[in-house]
Amino acid sequence: MLNKDQFADNHFIRTIIEDDLQSGKHAAIQTRFPPEPNGYLHIGHAKSICLNFGLAYVFDGKCNLRFDDTNPEKENQEYVDSIKEDVQWLGFQWQGEPRYASDYFDQLFDYAVGLIQDGKAYVCDLTPEEMREYRGTLTEAGKNSPYRDRTPEENLDLFMKMRDGAFPDGSKTLRLKIDMASGNINMRDPVIYRIRRAHHHNTGDKWCIYPMYDYTHAISDAIENITHSLCTLEFEAHRPLYDWVLDNIPSPSQPRQYEFSRLELLYSITSKRKLNQLVSENHVSGWDDPRMPTISGMRRRGYTPEGLRLFAKRVGISKSENIVDMSVLEGAIREELEESAPRMMAVLNPLKITLTNFEAGKTQSRSAPYHPHHESMGEREIPISSTLYIEQDDFSENPPAGWQRLTVGGEVRLRYSYVIKCDEAVKDENGQIIELKCSIDHDTLGKKPEGRKVKGVIHWLSAEHAVPATVRLYDRLFTVERPDAVRGDDGEYLPFTDFINPESKQEITAWVEPVANTLQPESRWQFERLGYFVTDRKDHEVGKPIFNKTVGLKDGFQK
Predict the structure, then answer these.
(1) pTM over cut 0.85
(2) What are the residue numbers of the active site?
(3) Is the pLDDT of residue 558 over 70?
(4) 46 is in an annotated binding site
(5) Is 431 annotated as a binding residue?
(6) Which keywords appear in this protein's UniProt record, sorted alphabetically (predicted)?
(7) Where are the domains of the chain?
(8) Is pLDDT at 361 greater than 90 in this prediction?
(9) CB within 8 Å of 36: residues ≥ 6 apart
(10) Hey, what CATH topology would domain 4-99+216-333 get?
């Protein structure tokens, strides 16, 4: 459930909105989340979703979902569907039906005609290479296109022919006539239409000219009566163009653009092009691979909407650099799961224990709660038998100082059960320990042993009752903080794929409590003493459990 305390507060955009509402500039706010459907959404988009939808929620406004679908060659329906699913899974619902920039193509075309008629746009024949040459540099002004002084009548005739398919792809563009000497390169007669014969997922083959993002975005905001158009800081230099477009058309409204810093998550990447490369080159199993920073990947990993909303609140909104360590994300997920995930015991790397004095009828089982703080989650019986499994790491033949787990001659409590003592370690012909022979202190079920302290408590399973499960153990996908920012000896950037962690995924067969055989996909649990795990969204079946490791009980990746 959403509540207004779940969203970042005391940031500059909230202050602007509060002032605008108080002054009467706006009676209500209207935001939008405008992804391009050319890939799956990632953790940076999650921050933006929480900002745009969150502000609308906090101030009782509305938020549109609008697809920026002006680049048909890279867009498809799969991405549209995944984006809608991700937004709803995060807990949000857009106003009305999803919008598409392509819904406004007729209006965008009409506004372009008006700009041509007003002498503010012209058809240009420069090639992309020539256009770069004419554009100038950060320190040198550009120069006017030789086609800049065409008459409005000539430009309108050419633009209509562009629309009607009279010219080859890329042979002409429509440009705004602004200022080739502007200190802001974005204002040097930007292209607003190009010829591109490409099938569009929404408009089919109606158009062979497509509008550019800056032009489309400003007008789409105005058509939708957006009050606060929020985007990341790389668009700050585009704001003068955004305003110019709206000032030079009969704009239905006057939205304002505000920029905030984008999220940089260490040990990850948030470039859709590079994420696509990971998928297309089979470095991962798909956009929803649990190692991916995509929303669908994090969902499959077992992250929760509540945990991601908590993370978005903690990283905040500002104009300063927003570099966040992976431990902050994992900490938010861990904190949320601590309260919401029921417990079970699981043994990932089993070592056999034989209880030499087990007596059927005398050796008893106990029940244990599924969550220590939430009685409503219920209880289950923890059965015991003569053969147990414990973690191999919970036994040491030569324990270090302070060891509180099992060793020959030492005692430990089995969680929710008896104190046992290890009497013998059985080895195979290679000297590997394959079995422990232990004895139960039958007088310690639910009470402390007399005359001595037993500090250690370990988890375990009855071999007779445990069920097998496939467990996928995940680590960070990259071995360095900024995999796409490492330079070689020659000063050039090295391929980010050079830093993929070869140990980022391991699949094992483990033993788990019988309840695992009854679970539905996306059931999140804490394996006691081990971490948080989720039944896989795709591969898990009732009776054939497959768990993905979500996050450990504590940060295991500190430097």
Answers:
(1) yes
(2) 36, 262, 272
(3) no
(4) yes
(5) no
(6) Aminoacyl-tRNA synthetase, ATP-binding, Cytoplasm, Ligase, Nucleotide-binding, Protein biosynthesis
(7) 4-99+216-333, 104-211, 344-466
(8) no
(9) 67, 68, 69, 71, 74, 75
(10) Rossmann fold (3.40.50)
